[in-house]
Structure formats: structure tokens, C-alpha cells
Design goal:
Number of strands: 17
Helix content: 40-55%
Shape: flat
Number of helices: 17
Strand content: 15-25%
Largest sheet: 6 strands, antiparallel
Structural class: alpha+beta
Distance between the termini: 91 Å
Length: 727
């Protein structure tokens, strides 16, 4: 195939493009596959573009918007979709996902699974993968599909490095900003599309950019022959460069013999008892511009490096052809959103008509103040003059001009708009508001949690798609680790608590890390692991649940049949779970030290402290007994003082009575009778005072006896208390 220079650059003839027969077949397959995939993805992409138009607040078609602007009519849209999209996306933001690695076969163990999980977590951290996952999820919710990728890069770009480590590679997780640049295999059938065998990632660029980026290409100037050969790839000013991913399959036979051996080929006279065909998958990445293979790369593993994130998909028969349809969260809410836009625009249009209502009057009534009447619907006017007009038939003065009242149909519009909002909620699986549980007077923690769960259930199929994509990503990363990290190097792993741990990969013997712990991390290619996605409640919910558990545990700890050393460890862990900061860690360390050398000393100190506390408690009990005795004695003195005061009052009353006797009557008989009565009263009062004193003395005796009994009981309880346990 001879190629000529591009008409834009005719200084040097273009060298002939040398294409092997196998490459020619591959390029033909690439061009045909690209045309086929583009046609089959066209409807899905068009629907996605419309979804994003609604998400961006513009549900109007180009024709409607153009016509309305030409007529001077409002073209308004009230956004009702973003709040529900954000609610769905933010629910996933609150509940972070993580890879969970479990041993499945081969040489895999719980230890290798933990190391592999820490390694994947470190790769995610370095790649800022959580942000990539969430951005892809938002694109999924808004536009029905999204993609991100797993790739590789050199671990170091140090130009001064002169050893083999400069060729070490690391695994990376990268975003794909524009999902429309991906044409994934439309023939895949698995829910996570993990069975995809072909995929395009296209990048349009100018011819100048292509020449600058692909300097090693055999041809950088394209002719009309190129444009005719690859019309979808080579344009007048642009070149389409694409990654073409393909899974190459190799079949091999496996035979099981009578003795249990499994062989690839049968020897003479050997008869198998069982046989099967094993398919081996090899993933290739070709960089091409449609007329040349620019680069070839082998991708480790059996899955494509492009991760699809798919939510709701359905198969619909149209014209005798079954087509795949992908749905976003807003897909079925587009019609009610457009209806809402029409209603809002019509409402604003009628509101604009209100001040334009004309005055209605008889001919000749507006002549004198004509200009003021003409501007009265635009400029506020305090006074308008009219000309008097007489009815020629009746001779009566005609009434003044009338201003017909115009009442916009706002109430009807509000009812219709509310109906559209409910239709949007129904289409997006959102619980209609308000409900009884959401009224301020009836809100509770349980009710709010139920409301939140109802809102999440309506869009949970998108969360399922998110989890499936992360699980596929984890399996791909896990399959690449033995290939990318096959040399001895020093890297960091990240534990579940997000702490970092430096390790040296692929050492033969364990070695001490920075904490003095002996670690050993060898990437074993024969260890077979399974990767799933672990999700849970939000961090705030986890903290609340942990705090509630710790409170109940501390309350029940004294009643549990646990030995003191174990109880101290549980108490220390409970304090750490409270997340009290450095001071809390110090308290936990004092209660249960992590250093074994200090454990015995700390236990002795705790035992001594317990003995001191017991002695102090006994002394406190003795002091409390003395205090009670003093209180009783004080009460007795108070009673004596009250008795003496009562006797003094009686003496004073007797003297007063004697004086009254002397003054009341001069006759002896009357005085004697009166004295006798007074004396009887005084005797009665004295007798009553004596009885009260006797009762008070009896009460003092009883109080002293009760105090002595209480003191004896306290001493007996202190003697029976067990001695503190020595550590």
C-alpha cells in the first residue's frame, strides 16, 4: 500500500507505510469493530446527553427554546432533580467502601489475605481511588454509566537513579473523565460486564498534536487515501487515536487418566476417564489511529483494564432487535421535569401580563390627560383626570373609565406544579414528603432512620452497580500484584485503621520494621484470593454505636465473672474505643500497659494502690462513726437547753400571776381562790414538762443505742471485706 504526503505538508514525500499481513487483518478488525460499536452505543449515548442536559438545569429542546425567545416568551426551569441526585450520591459518600480480601485457594492463608488487603488499600490511597470511585458513581447516577481504569506506571522517575529499581512498576487507578469516549463490548452479559472482550477508549486530537505525541509513528502526515481507508479515524484536521483492548483466547485440552494424572496430550495407548477444554485469556492493548498499530502492551490478568460502572439495565425489543437500555436516576423523571418547566414559564408569562391590563372608557374621556393615561400601566400615577362625556341619548354623564381586574391562575398552577414534583419523586424512587413521621412534633431518631432507609431503597440498584465495579476493580488489582511487584523493594502498606506500615517486598526471611516488629511480606503468585467489597454504616453511626456499647460494657463489667487482669485489659480497650485522644491513650496504658516488661511492675503498683484504698476506706468508716456520735451528743445538748428555757418561762409566768393576784382582788377569799387556781395550773404545767423531759431522755437513750449498733455493723462489714488481689 503506497501512501503520499499530505497536501498541507508537501516538502517531503511520505514514506510508504509498512504493514504486515497480520497487522492488516487486525486493523481491518479494529475499524469494523469501531463502526459496529459506535452504532450500537449511539442511542445509549444520546440518552445520556439528554440526561445531563436536564441535570444542568436545561430541559428545553433547541427548537422550543429558540421559538420562545423569538416570541419573547419566558423559558424557565426550576431544578427539582439535583437534590435527589445529591442525596443518592452523598449517601455513598457517607458510607465508605473498602476492599475485602479472603483466601480462596493455592498457598493463600489468612496472613497473605491480610497483607494483600493492606497492599490494595495502599494502592488505593496513593491513587486517591475513593475520589475516583465517587466521581464515577455520580456520573453513573446522572448519566446511566461511567468508567475508570486500572493501569501501571513506573514507581520512580528519578533521572539520577542508576540501578534496576528505576524499572520497577506500580499499579495505579485512574479516572476516565468523559464516559462517552469509551465504547465497551456491547455483547457482554455479566452484571458487572466482567466478561467483556473488546473495548475502545478514543481520544480525538489535532494532526499537529498527533505528530508531536507519536514521533515514532511510521506516518504522521495523512493523505486522502488514509481518509478514505479510515473515514471514521482520519479527518481534515483531526486524528482519532484509540486504545483497542482485546482478550485473546487460547484453547487447550486437559485429560484425566485412570491413575489420576492430568496431562495435556495423550500418549500411545492412553485412554482418558475425563477430558475438557480449558480456555486461557490474554489481554492485549493496542494503540492505533485506524491505519497503523502504534503500540502494543500486554495487560496482566484475564479482564480488561477498563472498569464499567452500570446501574439499571433492561433489554427491550425494538423492530425485531433486542437492545440494551441503560437508565440513569433521572431518566424517567425527565417528562415531569419538562412539564414543571412549562408550568413555571406559563405562570411567569401570566404574571408579566398583569400590569398590562388596559383602561376601558368612552371616546373622549382621555383627551385632556392622554399621556398620563397611556403610561398609567407602566408608571405609578397618583392622579388621573378624565373628560366629562354626556350620553347623547339619555343626556346623563357617562361613568368614569374602568380598569378590568386580571387575576392570574397562580393557585391552579401551584397545584399542577405540586403534581409534577410528586411525579418526579415517584420516577426517582423517592418517598413523597411530608409524611407523619417527618412532622416536627413527631420526629424521633427511629423515625428519621426509617425515612432515610426508605429514601435509600429507591436508588439502591445504583449502589449495587457501584459495589460490583469496586469488586471487579479489586480482583483486577489483586491479579496484577504478583506481576507488578515481583522484585525486592521497600513500600508502605496501609492497615484498616489507616496507619502506615513500611515493609520490604519479597524478602526471604522476616526483618524488623521501624517498630521493632518482625514482618515478612512475600508476593506469592500461587496464592489465590477472592476480593469483595465491604461496606458499613457511616463513621458517625459507627462512633455512636461504639460509644453506646462501651457505656453498657462499663456498666456491666463489675458483675462479669472476669479475672482482674482481663478486666483491666477490657477497661483499657473500652477507654480507647471512646476516642478520648492522647490523654485517653495514657489512661489506657496505665491500666493495661502494652510493654510486657512493665506489666508486672504496673500490677504491683495497682495492688499497692488497692491496699491503700482499702485502708483509707476503713479509716473513712471510723470517721463517719465518730461523726454520727457527735451529732447525737449535740442533739442531746439541744434538748437540755430547751428544757431549761421552758422552766425559766414557767417561773416568769408564776411571778406575773402573783402580781395579778395582788391587784385583782383585795378580799382574802377571792385571793385564796384565785391563788389556788393558779397554783393548780402551775402544777399541771410542771407535770407536763416533767413528762416531756422523761420522753426526751428516753429518745436520747434510743439514739445512743442506734449509733452504737451502726458503728458495730460497719466494723463487722470492714472485717469481712476480702483483701485486694495481688497482681
Amino acid at each position: 500500500m503506497s501512501m503520499y504526503a499530505d497536501k498541507d505538508d508537501q516538502q517531503q514525500p511520505t514514506p510508504p507505510l509498512v504493514v504486515s499481513e497480520s497487522d492488516e487483518e487486525l486493523l481491518t478488525e479494529i475499524r469494523d469493530t469501531y463502526t459496529d460499536f459506535s452504532m450500537r452505543w449511539k442511542d445509549i449515548k444520546d440518552e445520556r446527553n439528554i440526561d445531563l442536559q436536564y441535570i444542568c438545569g436545561d430541559p428545553w429542546s433547541i427548537e422550543d427554546r429558540k421559538q420562545r425567545k423569538a416570541d419573547g416568551r419566558p423559558c424557565i426551569s426550576h431544578d427539582e432533580l439535583s437534590q435527589y441526585v445529591n442525596s443518592c450520591v452523598n449517601s455513598v459518600r457517607q458510607n465508605k467502601r473498602g476492599m475485602k480480601v479472603e483466601p480462596r485457594g493455592g498457598t493463600a492463608t489468612e496472613k497473605t489475605a491480610e497483607d494483600r488487603q493492606n497492599h490494595i488499600r495502599a494502592i488505593e490511597y496513593e491513587s486517591k481511588a475513593p475520589d475516583i470511585y465517587l466521581n464515577a458513581f455520580q456520573e453513573l447516577v446522572e448519566g446511566s454509566y461511567s468508567f475508570f481504569r486500572v493501569g501501571s506506571a513506573y514507581a520512580s522517575d528519578d533521572a539520577a537513579c542508576m540501578d534496576a529499581s528505576i524499572f520497577d512498576q506500580k499499579i495505579t487507578i485512574k479516572p476516565i473523565a468523559n464516559p462517552n469516549c469509551v465504547l465497551f463490548d456491547p455483547d457482554c452479559r455479566e452484571p458487572d460486564w466482567s466478561d467483556g472482550e473488546r473495548c475502545f477508549v478514543v481520544e480525538p486530537m489535532t494532526r499537529a498534536d498527533f505528530k508531536r505525541k507519536w514521533k515514532r509513528a511510521q506516518i504522521t502526515d495523512f493523505t486522502p487515501d488514509h481518509m478514505m481507508l479510515a473515514k471514521d479515524w482520519i479527518q481534515d484536521k483531526n486524528v482519532l487515536v484509540a486504545e483497542f483492548w482485546k482478550v485473546l483466547k487460547t484453547e487447550s485440552h486437559k485429560y484425566e487418566l485412570e491413575d489420576g494424572r492430568v496431562v495435556n496430550t495423550l500418549g500411545k495407548g492412553e485412554k482418558p476417564v475425563n477430558e475438557r477444554v480449558v480456555v486461557t485469556r490474554k489481554v492485549m492493548q493496542y494503540m492505533t489511529n485506524g491505519v497503523e498499530i502504534l503500540e502494543r502492551n500486554v495487560f496482566p490478568g484475564k479482564h480488561l483494564g477498563i472498569i464499567p460502572m452500570i446501574g439499571l439495565q433492561r433489554w427491550v425489543e425494538e423492530g425485531g432487535i433486542v437492545k440494551r437500555k441503560l437508565f440513569s436516576l433521572v431518566r424517567l423523571a425527565r417528562d415531569p421535569q419538562l412539564s414543571l418547566a412549562f408550568l413555571v414559564s406559563q405562570q411567569m408569562e401570566e404574571a408579566g401580563l398583569t400590569p398590562k391590563t388596559p383602561w376601558v372608557g368612552y371616546v373622549g374621556q382621555f383627551e385632556t390627560d392622554k399621556e398620563a393615561w397611556e403610561n398609567s400601566t407602566k408608571v405609578p400615577t397618583s392622579m388621573l383626570q378624565i373628560d366629562v362625556v354626556v350620553d347623547g341619548a339619555s343626556g346623563q354623564i357617562l361613568p368614569p373609565p374602568q380598569h378590568p381586574q386580571f387575576t392570574p391562575n397562580f393557585q391552579a398552577y401551584e397545584v399542577a406544579k405540586d403534581s409534577c414534583r410528586r411525579a418526579i419523586q415517584a420516577a426517582m424512587g423517592i418517598t413523597p414528603l411530608p409524611t407523619a413521621a417527618q412532622r416536627d412534633s413527631e420526629k424521633s431518631g427511629v423515625a428519621l432512620e426509617k425515612i432515610k432507609q426508605q429514601g435509600d431503597i429507591g436508588s439502591f440498584h445504583f449502589v449495587d452497580g457501584f459495589d460490583r465495579a469496586l469488586s471487579l476493580c479489586g480482583r483486577i488489582v489483586d491479579s496484577q500484584i504478583p506481576v507488578r511487584y515481583d522484585t525486592e523493594r521497600k513500600e508502605s502498606l496501609r492497615k484498616a485503621d489507616d496507619s502506615r506500615m513500611m515493609v520490604t517486598f519479597n524478602t526471604e526471611e522476616p526483618y524488623p520494621n521501624e517498630k521493632g516488629e518482625m514482618v515478612h511480606y512475600k508476593v506469592d503468585p500461587d496464592a489465590d484470593h477472592d476480593v469483595t467489597v465491604s461496606d458499613g454504616p457511616s463513621q458517625a453511626s459507627q462512633y455512636e454505636a461504639a460509644a453506646e456499647f462501651v457505656d453498657s460494657l462499663l456498666a456491666a463489667l463489675p458483675t462479669l465473672p472476669i479475672a482482674p487482669p482481663q478486666a483491666q485489659k477490657i477497661l483499657a480497650l473500652a477507654i480507647q474505643m471512646k476516642e478520648l485522644g492522647p490523654k485517653g491513650d495514657q489512661i489506657a496504658e496505665i491500666i493495661s500497659p502494652t510493654n510486657p516488661d512493665q506489666s508486672t511492675q504496673m500490677q504491683q503498683q495497682i495492688g499497692q494502690a488497692q491496699q491503700q484504698m482499702a485502708a483509707q476506706g476503713q479509716a473513712l468508716q471510723e470517721l463517719q462513726g465518730e461523726l454520727q456520735k457527735l451529732r447525737l451528743e449535740k442533739a442531746g445538748h439541744v434538748i437540755d437547753n430547751e428544757y431549761k428555757a421552758s422552766m425559766q418561762r414557767m417561773e416568769i409566768e408564776a411571778k406575773v400571776a402573783a402580781a395579778e393576784i395582788a391587784t385583782k382582788s383585795q378580799q382574802l377569799d377571792e385571793r385564796m381562790t384565785f391563788v389556788t387556781d393558779i397554783w393548780q395550773k402551775l402544777q399541771d404545767q410542771a407535770h407536763e414538762a416533767g413528762l416531756q423531759a422523761s420522753d426526751q431522755q428516753h429518745d436520747r437513750t434510743q439514739a445512743d443505742a442506734a449509733a452504737q449498733a451502726a458503728q458495730a455493723q460497719q466494723q463487722q462489714a470492714a472485717a469481712q471485706e476480702p483483701a485486694p488481689v495481688q497482681a
